[in-house]
Amino acid sequence: MSNSPLSILRFRIIFIIAWIVMVADNAMVLNFFGLPWKAAIIDSAISNTLLLLACLLVMNTLRYYLPRGKQYINIFSICLFLTIIWLLLAKLLLRISLNHYPGYADLLHHSLSIRFSIAFLLLGCVTMISILWYNQQEQKEMNERKIDAEKLAKEAELFKLRQQLQPHFLFNSLNSINALIGSRPEEARKMVQQLSDFLRGTIKKEETQWVTFQEELQYLQLYLDIEKVRFGNRLATEIEVDENIKQLKLPALILQPIVENAIKFGLYDTTGNTVIRLFATKEGDNLVIKVLNPFDPETSSPKQGTGFGLKSVQRRLYLLFARTDLLTTHGKENIFTTIVKIPQVQ
Amino acid sequence: MSKVIIIDDEPLARSIVTEYLQKHPNLVLMQECGDGFEGLKAIQQHQPGLIFLDIQMPKITGFEMLELIEQPPSVIFTTAFDEYAIKAFEAHAVDYLLKPFDQHRFDKAIAKWAEQKTNTTEKATQDLLESASLSPSQSQRIVVKNGSKIKIIPVHDVQYLEAADDYVKIHTQEGYFLKNKTMTHFEQSLDSQQFVRSHRSYIVNVQHITRIDPL
């Protein structure tokens, strides 16, 4: 249910002032045509109070029943009908209360048409304004609902993206631990610890939460340590980050899928050793992170390059910043580069 | 006595199989391989009776490697998680080990293999490969053997396919490659938006059409 415009104090005051002005104005006009001040004020007060009631009636009715589309005829008829009722009632009341003034009956009779016109115009205006008000009100509510629904959908989507923690990674890590238990139990224990810390980090963090680059790098390191146990000396990493940009912020868990993609791409596409490199700089207001991995242009189709991992990062960046240009990739001379820009908004 | 080869890209994953194999003195481990290329060479060299094969590996997958072998040996697949592969295994009752697995589960797989060894499993392997190649990741490229070399052709590089007896000629800019498959197989596994079977013996990549002449 929309609120009436009169539910706002400011509008109520304006409405009352307008009524007082109307009463005064009307009385002055009547006095000008020869009616004594007292009679003029009584006349004006009675007719304008009735008009006020009619206005309130229209406002309240429209609150429950809003004409749709092109029902202008309805609006027009309602106004006309109300004006006629108002005129009959006003005429009756005025006769009863003011007929003893000499010449009043005559004045009333002659002024009926002008009273009717003014009242009709005024009521029409109030009706139109009310309709506009309620329509706007309805639009606003609809927008709010829409925004709420979008927000819910966005949260659900972000949650889903987060849930797609690669089961492949998890089971392979468990398999590595299984192998280590027999031969190197100390290392198995260490890897269990690393895997737990990594999983805890995934669960703990909210998708919308911002963390410092430093934190994200620590989390990434956990992931890399596990991958290095899995792939042995086939995987090496180089991370070059200036100390002074470690306090910049980025959305939690955005870096790991990018590096994961680079590792998969690099390790699954080349049979030799793979070096994954990560550089980060600050360019303008952006934190720019570049991840480089080797690839074989002969065997990898470009489609594979933007696997699920990068797609979900792209989607997240879009949901967070409403931009699609923050994640870019290009391959040149056996090196595939993924560049992600994080705007520093605060 | 049976010869065994392990093909898996993770060293620790190979070591666990090696460890479990110690309980089976009748199985002799010939070689451990880190990718499909190595695996292919080792299989040709040793002619093993059984291989342990991972699916996701560098360059070519376990399935793609098997496709390149004329008479594939018995296979026990070892995989961590692969929806399509598992579906294919279940459909064709091929034994597979889901990582991580323990000695008990491993022994069971060996026992099952020892039982079935006498029956030919080649047909089952062929059927398995057929259904595995329908998975989206596999339908992005075609792996062929070109002499002793292995060639990976991304599907968008394929111009058209031509039937040639028991083979299919895959035409690319660099010439054609032969693959021991049927036209029906390619018609099913390739993206029908991109590849159209215009004739009984031809499948055309619509992106490579330059001209259409009316008859």
Overview of this structure, please?
The complex is a heterodimer of chains A (346) and B (215). With 346 residues, chain A is of the alpha+beta class. Chain A folds into 2 domains: 156 residues, no CATH class; 180 residues, Histidine kinase-like ATPase, C-terminal domain (Heat Shock Protein 90). In chain A, 66% of the residues lie in helices and 14% in strands. Chain A contains 10 helices and 7 strands. In chain A, strand 6 and strand 7 form a beta hairpin. Chain A is rod-shaped, with a radius of gyration of 38 Å. About 1% of the residues of chain A have low confidence. Chain B is of the alpha/beta class and 215 residues long. Chain B folds into 2 domains: 131 residues, Rossmann fold (3-Layer(aba) Sandwich), CATH 3.40.50.2300; 71 residues, OB fold (Dihydrolipoamide Acetyltransferase, E2P), CATH 2.40.50. In chain B, 33% of the residues lie in helices and 30% in strands. Chain B is built from 7 helices and 12 strands. In chain B, the strands form 3 sheets. A 5-stranded parallel beta sheet of chain B has the order 2-1-3-4-5, sandwiched between helices. A 5-stranded antiparallel beta sheet of chain B has the order 10-9-8-12-11, covered by helices on one side. A two-stranded antiparallel sheet of chain B has the order 6-7. In chain B, a hairpin with a 2-residue loop joins strand 6 and strand 7. In chain B, helix 4 runs antiparallel to helix 6. At the A-B interface, helix 5, helix 7 and helix 8 of A face helix 1 of B.
